[in-house]
Each structure stands twice: as C-alpha cells, then as structure tokens.
Amino acid sequence: MRKFFRRNTAGYVFLTPWLIGFFFLALGPILVSLYLSFTRYDMVSAPVWDGLGNYQYMFEYDRRFWKALEVTFTFVAFSVPLRLAAALGVAMLLDKGLRTIGLYRAIFYLPSLLGASIAIALLWREMFGLNGVINQVLSMVGITGKGWITDPDTSIYTIVVLAMWQFGSPMLIFLAGLRGIPRDLYEAAEIDGTSRFRQFRRITLPMLAPVIFFNLVLQTIEAFKTFTSAFIISNGTGAPADSLLFYTVYLFNEAFKFFRMGYASALAWVLLLIIAAFTALAFATSKYWVHYENERD
Questions:
Q1: Is residue 195 part of a domain?
Q2: Is 84 exposed, middle or buried (0-12, 13-18, 19+ CB in 10 A)?
C-alpha cells in the first residue's frame, strides 16, 4: 500500500480539488435528489414518501416522458456523428501544416465557446424563421422556404445543425491525435502507391480509434445534456407540437415551472441511468474496434 500511494501521490494531489468539491458540495445534493425521487415534493410542503410512484407514473402513464426520450434520442443519433465527422474533416485540413494554423484553430473553435449562449440560440431562431437569413438565401436560387423552426418536421434538425456547428472542442482533440500518427506510415503507403482514401481507412482511422472513442463518449454525454439551445428556441415549452421537447427541457419544466420536484428528481436519475448505459455500451464494444499502440497480442 505504501508503494502504491508513493507511486500515485501526484495523481491524488491533482485530484484533491475535485474530490473536495465532490464530497463537500456535490455528494449531499446527489443523495438528497435520490431520496426526493421517491417522494411527492412541491418545494413548499414537506416531502411525502411515495415509493416507486414517480417511476411507475413515468413509465406507464406519462406520454410526454416518452416524447422527450424520442426527441432526445433523435437529436443524439444525428448530432453526434455529424459533429464528429465535421470535427475530423476540419482537423485533417488543419493538419496540412498551414502557416497560420493558430488563427484557423481559433476561428473554428469560436463556435464552441459561443454555441451554448442565449444570444446564439436567439440568433439561430431568427435565422431559421420564416423571414430569416436561410430563407432569403434560398429565395435567391428560386427555392421557397418555410418556418424551419415552427415546422414540427424540421425543427429538431435546426438544433442538429447548431450542434454540428459547435465542433471546435472535438476538432482540437482530433488534431492532437493526428499529430501523434507517425509520418513514416503515410510515406511508406505513398511509396506503395496507396490511394488517399485507402490511407485514411487503413492508417488514419485505426491509429485515431482511441481518440474517436474518447470524443464519441464525451459528445454523446453532452448531447444528452443539451438544454440552452432547445429551451430558448422553443420558448421553454418544447414547441412546436413537442418536437423540441428535449429531456432536459421537460425535466426543467417539471421542477421549476410546475414545482414537481420529486418527479423531476426521478427524471434526473433516469437520465443518469440512460447516459450510464450508453457509456457502458460504448466501453463494452470498444474492444472490437479501439486498439492501442501498447497492446500485445
């Protein structure tokens, strides 16, 4: 044990601020929310124990709960692959050794800093409105647009486009991973006459698999937690026709609009379990496609 702690002392020192914050600031509210999930609590009167009542109502009777799951799963299924594809594509372009790469890196990362802000969500709502910039551009080529935000069939995809636009963070991680791939692998492939596409499939993707896995897990978790853009664009209601009823928006309304804090706590724990399940699935399947340099057959 003494040897173990001596070898890992630096790691525990760096973890100390997080551990202090977790045990003294986060653990208490987490346990309280778990307790409240089994109660009927309106933030005014004392909690009343209800056992599994919240969970039973959620799965058996609450249609909006299932709608929120449908909307959120749709968003995750489209936004995560598109964001990762955009991030990888731009990272490969920046990996060409551009002289002003620092400037380009900052420009492409900027949307990630602004994307979760209220101002950008409001701007996005105006852009995809009936008289927005998008329809004005389409009218120049003879296409009659519509209210992309107000149409239940297309509203979710405007949020997907916004999420794809915020590819700065995974892009930087991909760029760092690309810089770690030995150049001599590409040189040997070019000598053998291997095409660029085959180099990408046989060298880039396998060598980048750990980074892809890391970005996939992080971006999936972030997609499930999406709130600001959906809340602002839908005016906090999930409109139109609940097509923007993200799980987090529904949870927020149950807690702070209808003051059903006990039910909202149950919703929060279900979301935690869903994210944990997707993360566990990603780790379970990673052994089939993620390989590390230090692995031995």
A1: yes
A2: buried
**Residue 221: which CATH number?**
1.10.3720.10
Task: Give the pLDDT confidence score for residue 297 in this predicted structure.
Answer: 46
| CB distance 84 to 90 below 8 Å | no
Q: Give the CA distances from residue 153 to residues 67, 71, 81, in Å, rounded to whole numbers and listed in that order.
A: 14, 11, 20
Sign of CA dihedral 44, 50, 55, 56: negative
Indicate whether 18 belongs to any domain. no
Q: How many other CB atoms are found less than 10 A from the CB of residue 195?
A: 11
Whether 38 maps to a domain, the answer reads no
Instruction: Report whether pLDDT(74) > 70.
Output: yes
CA distance 127 to 222: 24
Residues 200 and 212: their CA atoms lie apart, in Å, by 14
In tens, the pLDDT along 215-226 reads 999 999 999 999
Higher-confidence position of 220 and 113: 220
Kindly report the backbone phi and psi dihedral angles of residue 182, in degrees, each rounded to the nearest multiple of 5, phi listed first.
Answer: -60, 130
Average pLDDT over residues 174-192: 90
Q: How far is CA 29 from CA 25, 26, 37, 125, 270, in A?
A: 8, 6, 12, 34, 16
Quote the tokens at residue 100: 């002003």
Q: Which residue(s) pair with 49 in the sheet?
A: 39
Report the predicted TM-score, pTM, of the whole model to 2 decimal places. 0.91
CA dist., res. 122 & res. 103, Å (int): 27
Q: Who wins on pLDDT, 30 or 292?
A: 30
Q: What is the pLDDT of residues 220-246, one digit of tens each?
A: 999 999 999 999 999 999 989 999 999
Answer yes or no: are the C-beta atoms of 152 and 237 closer than 8 Å.
no
Asked whether residue 54 is domain-assigned, the answer is: no
Domain count of the fold of the chain: 1
Q: Is the pLDDT of residue 97 over 70?
A: no
| Domain carrying residue 249 | 62-286
